[in-house]
Protein backbone atom coordinates (compact mmCIF):
# COMPACT_ATOMS: atom_id res chain seq x y z
CA UNK A 1 0.00 0.00 0.00
CA UNK A 2 1.40 3.40 -0.90
CA UNK A 3 1.83 6.09 1.69
CA UNK A 4 -0.39 9.06 0.72
CA UNK A 5 2.03 11.42 2.47
CA UNK A 6 4.72 10.31 0.02
CA UNK A 7 2.54 10.70 -3.09
CA UNK A 8 2.69 14.17 -4.61
CA UNK A 9 -0.79 15.72 -4.72
CA UNK A 10 -2.52 16.32 -8.00
CA UNK A 11 -2.82 19.98 -8.88
CA UNK A 12 -6.14 21.21 -10.17
CA UNK A 13 -6.00 24.91 -10.88
CA UNK A 14 -8.94 24.99 -13.28
CA UNK A 15 -12.35 23.34 -13.03
CA UNK A 16 -11.98 21.82 -16.48
CA UNK A 17 -8.85 19.94 -15.31
CA UNK A 18 -11.03 18.09 -12.80
CA UNK A 19 -13.53 17.17 -15.48
CA UNK A 20 -10.73 15.88 -17.73
CA UNK A 21 -9.43 13.73 -14.84
CA UNK A 22 -12.93 12.39 -14.15
CA UNK A 23 -13.49 11.46 -17.78
CA UNK A 24 -10.00 9.92 -18.06
CA UNK A 25 -10.90 7.68 -15.10
CA UNK A 26 -14.07 6.57 -16.91
CA UNK A 27 -16.55 8.74 -15.01
CA UNK A 28 -19.33 10.86 -16.43
CA UNK A 29 -19.49 14.53 -15.48
CA UNK A 30 -23.10 14.82 -14.40
CA UNK A 31 -24.84 18.05 -13.43
CA UNK A 32 -24.65 17.23 -9.68
CA UNK A 33 -20.93 16.44 -10.05
CA UNK A 34 -20.31 19.69 -11.90
CA UNK A 35 -22.18 21.62 -9.19
CA UNK A 36 -20.15 19.99 -6.38
CA UNK A 37 -16.84 20.70 -8.14
CA UNK A 38 -17.85 24.32 -8.79
CA UNK A 39 -18.83 24.76 -5.12
CA UNK A 40 -15.50 23.27 -3.96
CA UNK A 41 -13.62 25.71 -6.21
CA UNK A 42 -15.69 28.62 -4.88
CA UNK A 43 -15.29 27.68 -1.20
CA UNK A 44 -12.90 29.81 0.87
CA UNK A 45 -11.80 26.78 2.89
CA UNK A 46 -12.98 23.38 4.05
CA UNK A 47 -16.75 23.04 3.66
CA UNK A 48 -19.34 20.52 4.87
CA UNK A 49 -21.37 18.35 2.53
CA UNK A 50 -24.49 20.03 3.88
CA UNK A 51 -23.14 23.46 2.95
CA UNK A 52 -22.11 22.13 -0.46
CA UNK A 53 -25.66 20.90 -1.00
CA UNK A 54 -27.02 24.34 -0.09
CA UNK A 55 -24.43 26.14 -2.24
CA UNK A 56 -25.19 23.96 -5.25
CA UNK A 57 -28.93 24.42 -4.93
CA UNK A 58 -29.49 20.66 -4.84
CA UNK A 59 -32.70 19.59 -3.15
CA UNK A 60 -32.14 18.87 0.54
CA UNK A 61 -33.99 15.62 -0.02
CA UNK A 62 -30.99 14.31 -1.99
CA UNK A 63 -27.84 14.76 0.13
CA UNK A 64 -26.71 11.32 -1.00
CA UNK A 65 -25.87 12.78 -4.41
CA UNK A 66 -23.44 15.23 -2.81
CA UNK A 67 -21.84 12.46 -0.75
CA UNK A 68 -21.56 10.12 -3.76
CA UNK A 69 -19.83 12.83 -5.76
CA UNK A 70 -17.50 13.72 -2.87
CA UNK A 71 -16.61 10.05 -2.46
CA UNK A 72 -15.82 9.77 -6.16
CA UNK A 73 -13.75 12.98 -6.07
CA UNK A 74 -11.83 11.68 -3.04
CA UNK A 75 -11.13 8.33 -4.71
CA UNK A 76 -9.61 10.19 -7.66
CA UNK A 77 -7.50 12.45 -5.43
CA UNK A 78 -9.40 15.60 -6.38
CA UNK A 79 -10.84 16.28 -2.92
CA UNK A 80 -10.23 15.17 0.64
CA UNK A 81 -11.92 15.54 3.98
CA UNK A 82 -10.75 16.67 7.39
CA UNK A 83 -12.25 16.31 10.86
CA UNK A 84 -12.17 19.62 12.72
CA UNK A 85 -13.88 19.16 16.04
CA UNK A 86 -17.10 17.30 16.69
CA UNK A 87 -19.02 18.51 13.66
CA UNK A 88 -19.35 16.92 10.24
CA UNK A 89 -16.39 16.17 8.01
CA UNK A 90 -15.28 19.12 5.92
CA UNK A 91 -14.20 18.80 2.29
CA UNK A 92 -11.70 20.69 0.17
CA UNK A 93 -9.86 20.48 -3.12
CA UNK A 94 -6.48 18.80 -3.10
CA UNK A 95 -3.31 20.31 -4.45
CA UNK A 96 -3.71 24.01 -3.82
CA UNK A 97 -1.04 24.04 -1.13
CA UNK A 98 -1.72 21.30 1.36
CA UNK A 99 -2.87 22.45 4.78
CA UNK A 100 -2.73 20.89 8.20
CA UNK A 101 -4.74 22.10 11.16
CA UNK A 102 -4.59 23.26 14.77
CA UNK A 103 -7.86 23.19 16.72
CA UNK A 104 -8.64 24.92 20.01
CA UNK A 105 -10.59 22.50 22.17
CA UNK A 106 -12.13 25.33 24.18
CA UNK A 107 -13.34 27.90 21.62
CA UNK A 108 -13.30 25.64 18.54
CA UNK A 109 -11.14 27.97 16.44
CA UNK A 110 -9.38 26.07 13.66
CA UNK A 111 -6.15 27.40 12.20
CA UNK A 112 -4.82 26.11 8.90
CA UNK A 113 -1.06 25.80 8.62
CA UNK A 114 1.07 25.05 5.57
CA UNK A 115 2.31 21.47 6.01
CA UNK A 116 6.04 22.41 6.03
CA UNK A 117 5.43 24.65 9.06
CA UNK A 118 4.80 21.52 11.14
CA UNK A 119 7.83 19.59 9.86
CA UNK A 120 9.78 20.16 13.10
CA UNK A 121 6.92 18.62 15.11
CA UNK A 122 6.58 15.79 12.59
CA UNK A 123 10.33 15.13 12.65
CA UNK A 124 10.36 15.06 16.46
CA UNK A 125 7.58 12.47 16.53
CA UNK A 126 9.31 10.39 13.89
CA UNK A 127 12.67 10.52 15.68
CA UNK A 128 11.22 9.67 19.11
CA UNK A 129 8.50 7.16 18.16
CA UNK A 130 9.22 6.03 14.60
CA UNK A 131 5.96 7.44 13.19
CA UNK A 132 5.60 9.97 10.39
CA UNK A 133 2.73 12.15 11.62
CA UNK A 134 0.18 13.86 9.42
CA UNK A 135 -2.19 16.54 10.69
CA UNK A 136 -4.24 16.93 7.51
CA UNK A 137 -7.02 14.47 8.40
CA UNK A 138 -7.18 15.11 12.14
CA UNK A 139 -5.84 18.34 13.65
CA UNK A 140 -3.43 18.96 16.49
CA UNK A 141 -5.77 19.73 19.39
CA UNK A 142 -4.92 22.07 22.25
CA UNK A 143 -5.63 25.60 23.46
CA UNK A 144 -5.18 28.72 21.33
CA UNK A 145 -3.32 31.74 22.70
CA UNK A 146 -6.60 33.60 23.41
CA UNK A 147 -7.97 30.73 25.50
CA UNK A 148 -4.64 30.28 27.29
CA UNK A 149 -4.55 33.91 28.35
CA UNK A 150 -8.25 34.22 29.18
> Radius of gyration over alpha carbons?
17 Å
Largest sheet report:
3 strands, antiparallel
Question: Could you give the order of strands across the largest sheet?
Answer: 1-3-2
How does the overall form come out from the CA principal axes?
Answer: globular
Q: Please state roughly what percent of the residues sit in beta strands, choosing from under 5%, 5-15%, 15-25%, 25-35%, 35-45% or over 45%.
A: 15-25%
Mean pLDDT: 83
Low-confidence stretches: 1-9
Terminus-to-terminus distance: 46 Å
Which structural class best describes the helix and strand composition? alpha+beta
| Count of alpha and pi helical runs | 6
Explain this structure.
- The protein has 150 residues and is an alpha+beta fold.
- It contains six helices and six strands; from the N terminus they run ααβααββββαβα.
- It has helices at residues 15-24, 31-42, 49-56, 63-75, 119-129, 145-149; strands at 47-48, 79-82, 90-93, 99-104, 110-114, 140-142.
- Strands 1-3-2 form a three-stranded antiparallel beta sheet. It has a three-stranded mixed beta sheet with strand order 5-4-6, with no helix packed on it.
- It is globular and about 50 Å long.
- It starts with 14 loop residues before the first helix and ends with a helix.
- Residues 1-9 have low confidence and may be disordered.
